[in-house]
């Protein structure tokens, strides 16, 4: 909220003032930090870093795990690089470096007083020191390993880093060669054993075939081939028999039909029959000519008919001869078909017996084939082991270490900057803590500190905002206009407003806005006034009735709205509040009373007075005691200094009395009221009065010895 932001800004301003006050402390702390950093830089040992890079072949396979068929589809081993990181820092590799470079004689690795130590102890200390000085890192998403080494000399760092890489490669080559040698021996022994196993498996297959008379040709069993051949021959014989039968029946039917010349069947032919058919056709043609030219009784026609009968008899005889030959061929084919079917049934019966044996034969053949595959696999592994020994290491150096041009540790600029920052922040926090302790121990620390002015404050006096902690300095709170679009109104209150109207139209709604709109800027400002008052009551006696006088310089300055809403907000913290109206010109509360108030009686200054309760809902109400301007006795009693005794009438029923007092124009009445109450609050109209005149008003009231608590500037615009 804007109000809170303004308060944060004021707190930051106070912090800056504290830092300015103790600037010498802060500067001294920063100087001490810089001096300490310089001393550290001169006292600490300078170190130089050199780095060497090694590329790991993550696709490498060797030994019995090699598979030449899987090279094309090989995938990198995700654990390969992690394993090599462990090997690089292993004592086996580091001991090679210690031995090659005689680091067990270097005081930087074994210390200055190591002459009395044994060789093994020296080597162990050197390995431990080298392990601490070595940093091994894996580059992201690569198979590159970086080895960094820190020593007191740049040349030494580069030499040792390169020696570590070379020792690692030498260790890996030695390990690989030893492993390959062991694997080759193991594979040779296994290969010899597997060769015998394969031979025995195939011998067992051949023996089973011989014992059960199972032979094959071109990969097929003879029994199977014979069965296939008989099946094919039987099918051909069956087709031939069917064709001969159909042809014989067709020819016989033609012979019985009188064998017309135009419908001769296909296949019924021979050389003799063709000649007879030709003569028969010529005689038929000659018969037709003679019948047409000579007549039916002519001797020549009769001679031709005699020839025609002779030719037809000859054709019948020839056809019967051909049909008898076809019938004989049909009978032979039928007999052949029966013989083939008989042989096929015999072969089928024999195959059924052999199939039972073939199950066992297939098992033997599969076993022999599996043993042969194992043998072939071992042959490939043996060849791979021979090629691996010539391929070299799984890793190679891609960047050798070179002497560093500048030191790696310590870095002067970062150390100076860090020391300066530590001194700055430590001193800044320290002076703030000291200022807080001083404020707690000071006599005025029991007086509650005010929150910073509201975000709606428009006061030009910056000194009032910079020192809000003392209650002797009147506070200033700005109260904004009540805007409908800024409020979180309840449904029953929204019904009081016209659609689209921004200003709250009713007097009741304005005077009770803090109850209807608890989340508005207006209510937050009223709560700020309430909190400022509550903070100051720790100095008063708990049994006293607290009194607050609200006044203004001009009419309609928001004085009555401040009284009613302040009463509501005080009620919400458990206080019983009553408003005493002494302003003879105030008609707003009279209107509020006349609407929905419930009257009752209370004793005031020896007189029984009417007290009105205005119900607001949700258990809230406003208690109002109006004093008419013609009741001079009560007015005079209220104006006297000993008027606190008059409040005994409220003591049994109320904790707080808010007096809606007169304007400044009634200076004598105001003086009497102000000296008899605990708080005096001045309401200013932010639209009709100039807030910059607060200092003048404060001086005016001080001259009258009025205990002024604060100012409330009403009707201000947010922003």
Structure notes:
This protein has 719 residues and is α/β, with parallel strands linked by helices. The chain is 56% helix and 13% strand. The protein is built from 22 helices and 15 strands. It has helices at 2-21, 23-43, 80-88, 91-101, 107-110, 119-133, 154-211, 222-256, 271-293, 299-391, 412-441, 462-466, 491-494, 507-511, 513-516, 521-536, 559-571, 588-596, 632-639, 648-651, 667-674, 694-703, and strands at residues 48-56, 134-138, 144-151, 216-217, 220-221, 395-399, 475-480, 546-552, 577-581, 598-604, 607-617, 620-626, 656-663, 679-685, 710-716. The strands form three sheets. It has a nine-stranded mixed sheet, with helices on both faces. The longest helix is centred in the middle third of the chain and has 93 residues, at 299-391. It is elongated. The termini are close together.
Q: How many β-strands, per DSSP? A: 15
Class derived from helix and strand content: alpha/beta
Tell me, what's the shape?
A: elongated
Question: What radius of gyration results from the CA coordinates?
Answer: 63 Å
Relative strand content: 5-15%
Uncertain segments? 1-10, 442-471, 484-505, 640-645
Strand order of the largest sheet: 7-15-14-8-13-9-12-11-10
What's the pLDDT, averaged over the residues? 76
Distance between the termini: 11 Å
What share of the residues lie within helices?
55-70%
Count of alpha/pi helices: 22
Task: Report the major sheet.
Answer: 9 strands, mixed
